[in-house]
Specification:
Helix 1 crosses helix 2 (39-55). With 273 residues, the protein is α+β, with helices and mostly antiparallel strands. Strands 1, 2, 3, 4, 5, 8 and 9 form a seven-stranded mixed sheet that branches. A four-stranded antiparallel sheet has the order 7-6-10-11, with no helix packed on it. The protein contains seven helices and eleven strands.
């Protein structure tokens, strides 16, 4: 494939994913449009749609890290995590239901969120750099979504699709890092009162801090480093759970607290109207 053909493929894949998000209709895997196994081409698709989103008025507020579970990495045949962009309009305040139809194929996972108080501009950040730069941690729910039908994805598909970003919910009580050992925290995620996922901080690349260091180094190397004020979703602490209308989720992360969300029912909204 020539460079011109590759550029055209990136543009086409970006348009397909953008249309899927706009229409609410999942599409076939976009890996068929790109050079086989080309993760860099997939990131080019992601950057193109992020740039279009920013040009359209959306405000970037941080990054998410995906593929932090060794089991998921093995499933997709990769040996590294990936990342995507977070926007302000992806944030769902606790107590505000997720509207029906807002997402295509949502799934929920529990994570540690870091909020930065300083930039991380170096390509070789240390744990000390990260600890100094982090203002506080929060419990978080990431509501992942895929514009690819049936979640039929490889790493190329998910990277191109902004790392399968959907929405996120942050807990409301900030915790300084000197008050919690993120590697040792335990997580329990419930759905409608029943436990659907468990995990620990060590299940996220060995520690959420390790995942955040990988992201900081990767982005600095790309010339787009993490900045003060950025939110970093560090990756799932346990398996994700599919969500449907009417489902209520609650995650408790030891030392960080609890974060909840609920998916509104179309019938309930209609009755309220």
């Amino acid at each position: 494939m020539t460079s011109r053909d590759s550029a055209a493929a990136v543009t086409k894949a970006a348009e397909v994913l953008e249309d899927a998000a706009r229409t609410g209709t999942p599409v076939p895997p976009v890996r068929a449009l790109l050079p086989e196994g080309d993760v860099q081409a997939a990131y080019a698709v992601q950057r193109l749609n992020v740039a279009r989103a920013v040009a359209g008025g959306r405000r970037p507020v941080g990054r998410k890290i995906g593929l932090t579970s060794p089991a998921v990495q093995r499933q997709l045949g990769v040996d590294r995590p990936d990342f995507g962009a977070l926007f302000a309009d992806m944030a769902v305040p606790e107590g505000q239901p997720v509207a029906p139809g807002r997402l295509l194929q949502p799934k929920v996972e529990a994570e540690v969120a870091l909020v930065l108080g300083a930039d991380l501009p170096h390509r070789d950040p240390t744990v000390a750099d990260l600890l100094r730069a982090t203002a506080f941690a929060l419990p978080a729910l990431e509501i992942v979504d895929s514009r690819v039908a049936g979640w039929d994805i490889t790493i190329v598909d998910t990277v191109a699709d902004n790392a399968s970003c959907g929405l996120y919910v942050l807990g409301g009580t900030p915790v300084p890092l000197d008050r919690v050992d993120l590697r040792a925290v335990t997580m329990t995620l419930t759905k409608n009162g029943e436990t659907v996922s468990r995990g620990t901080g060590a299940d996220c690349l060995g520690s959420p801090l390790t995942a955040a260091l990988w992201l900081a180094s990767t982005l600095a190397g790309l010339g787009d480093p993490l900045r003060a004020g950025d939110i970093v979703l560090t990756g799932a602490l346990g398996p994700m759970s599919a969500a449907a209308e009417g489902d209520a989720f609650s995650a408790h992360i030891e030392g960080l607290g609890t974060v909840d969300t609920v998916f509104a029912s179309a019938t309930a909204e209609g009755a309220a109207a």
